[in-house]
Specification:
The chain has two helices and nine strands. A hairpin with a 7-residue loop joins β8 (118-123) and β9. Residues 1-8 have low confidence and may be disordered. It is α+β, with helices and mostly antiparallel strands. The strands form two sheets. A five-stranded antiparallel sheet has the order 5-1-7-8-9, with helices on one face. The protein has a four-stranded antiparallel sheet with strand order 4-3-2-6. α1 runs antiparallel to α2.
Length: 137
Amino acid sequence: MEIDHAVPDLDTIPFRVTFECSTALRTVAEVLHSMLETAELQIIKKHADDDFEGVLVEAIDAKQISLVVAKVRADVEIAEGVTRTSVCLNTNIFNTVVRSALPHYSVDLQTMPGTSSLQVRAFEALSGSCTTRFVLP
C-alpha cells in the first residue's frame, strides 16, 4: 500500500461557507469594493489553536495607504484535516452579487467541482422558498 504524502493544492480544496445573515458580508463587500479591485478571502475552519471560524481579509490598497482587515464569522465546511484555504475575487462583481441578497437572507459561498468558479447562493433560510444563485468566474 502506498501513502500519498503530497500537500493538497490549496486553490482546489472544495469548501462551503454559510453566513446566517448577509448584513456583515454585505458591509465587508462594500468596503472591499470601495478600496480594492481584487481581494483574497481566507476561509478558516476552527481548530485547536484558534477559535475563529469564517472569512478573513487582510489587504492593502494599490497606493499602499490603507490596510483592510476584516473578520466575518460563518459556518465553514472544508476537506477533512484542512484548516484554511483562500479564494481571490473581483470586488466589483462580488459587491454587486452580495448586495443583491436581502439583509435577512443567508448566503453560501461554495467552490464548484472541476472549476475555479465560486457559486454564491442567497436564500431565505426560514422558508427556503427564495433562492438566488450566481457563479463568479
